[in-house]
Amino acid sequence: MRQERRPEDPVRVDPRAYLKAPVVLSVNHVSKDFRLPTEQATGLKQAFINWTKGIKGYRQLQVLRDIDFQVHQGEFFGIVGRNGGGKSTLLKLISQIYYPETGSISVQGKLVPFIELGVGFNPELTGRENVYLNGALLGFSREQVDGMYDDIVEFAELGEFMDQKLKNYSSGMQVRLAFSVAIKAQGDILVLDEVLAVGDEAFQRKCDDFFTEIKKDPTKTVILVTHDMGSVKKYCTRAMMIADGKMQAIGDPESISQQYTLANLEAERVEAEARQEALGGYANGLNERCPILRTRPVSPQVNSGKEPFRFSVEYQYDEPGDFYLAVAVHDIRRGGITYDTGPKVMKMRHHGHHTVEFDMPLDIFNNGEFRLITSLRTPSLTDPRGTDAVGVALDENACDFVIRNDRNGDYALLSDRALTISPVSSADVEEEDQN
User: For labeling, which of 49, 284, 344, 428 is most exposed (least CB within 10 Å)?
Assistant: First the structure.
């Protein structure tokens, strides 16, 4: 049976088409600083004393440094990065909520910022009144909001509730109304900050259809900040990654998604090492008998799945007698143990401090995030067929890897290449041509 195109599959467009369109947003070498208070003067006398001592009472925090890029009309442009990297500050600069210390920002067309859901909504006003209030805050006249009103109400599916006060709405109803105002506002450039996954499942499907359609409109431009790499690859024509206030990379969504994933893995490793250093002693899961046990990637951590994933295990075990390495594959996103080598499969020949490499085929897996956890084991004293763990490679000593490939699905663990359910009789199922 031929595989039906899944709703989550990305819509394919020519990624270079935007190059022919005019530039609608130009960010030219922009930097932004904030002053953070360090010492507060309680009166004029203390302020004078601080001034004579050269105490400023604040420290300068540089949030963005030399950000420079352009967005063309019709693009769906993604901005990604870890928390604290400066993404939301950049959106507020683009939306003219903040102004840069250096550089300039040029916008061509009507820009509609939607950075926080429900900002500007008044719970004491009705849904109808809040639509007009929010429209005014976005810079639209009453006549312009009149023209958008029916579309907003229809998309939010709140027609019978628009004359009720907002405080009587459920949280889901408020989110739907706020989001509908944002995306139905008749602007040329829509700026969104982490607001794609809103409402219930049915409303999310509706939003998905909307963004699929707006992506096809060459007159509409969307700038999206998100941590969801699925959304980046599904919607965006280009993406940019920001880290520590600087632009790290800009390019096609797949490459930027991979860089972001690798940055997360590296940050988690550094954080785990910092925790271990603070605790002192042996790493979590290790001890005097097994002081070293590390699992490290040899292959790239972002893997297409077409080639085996190679990894190494470094261990130290000096006691005489048989011992084994067991490797378990944990599914980070879906949960559970995907695979385990078994406690007595990999019997080691060499005692002492050594490193061995292993290959693991990934072809049968769909996309996902996985973690390899290795344990060093010795024959059990109570169970002749079992083993006991001497040490386990956890936290920074575990190995994370990611499978990303357009041929794969995202929902189930096993791909159609590993398992396909077919009818016993072809007469019972109609096969459709999906091409």
Answer: 428
